[in-house]
Design a protein that fits this description.
about 110 residues, mainly beta, 3-stranded antiparallel beta sheet, elongated, YjdM, YjdM_C, Zinc ribbon domain-containing protein YjdM
């Protein structure tokens, strides 16, 4: 019998190979045989404009005037944003900004304080 890896999601030992993918019948998770590529994607480090790694709870400042979509307001350069939360997607920072409310920002427009 082949020595197949356990499921990385639920750790089930009943995995099987389907073409170039491994499949877990218990949680229906599929992953590629190249585990290094999957691990790099899962552990993707979100960095600010200067290349510093960001984490949940960090404080950042905005490095460019940003137009607020759906409003005539502008987020000014130097605006401090406290207690950020990192999320998946194009806008990878979720935060609350005083005077504006809940916002999603791109990490390329902030720098860590």
């Amino acid at each position: 019998m082949l020595n197949l890896p356990n499921c990385p999601k639920c750790h089930s030992e009943y995995t099987y190979e389907d073409g170039s993918l491994f499949v877990c019948p218990e949680c229906a998770y599929e992953w590629s045989a190249d585990l290094d590529a999957d691990n790099n994607e899962d552990n993707k480090m979100i960095k600010d404009a200067n290349g510093n790694p960001l984490a949940d709870g960090d404080t950042v400042t905005i490095i460019k005037d940003l137009k607020v979509k759906g409003s005539s307001s502008i987020l000014k350069i130097g605006t401090k944003v406290k207690n950020i939360r990192l999320v998946d997607g194009d806008h990878d920072i979720d935060c609350k900004i005083d005077g504006f409310g809940a916002m999603k920002l791109k990490s390329e427009f902030v720098k860590k304080v």
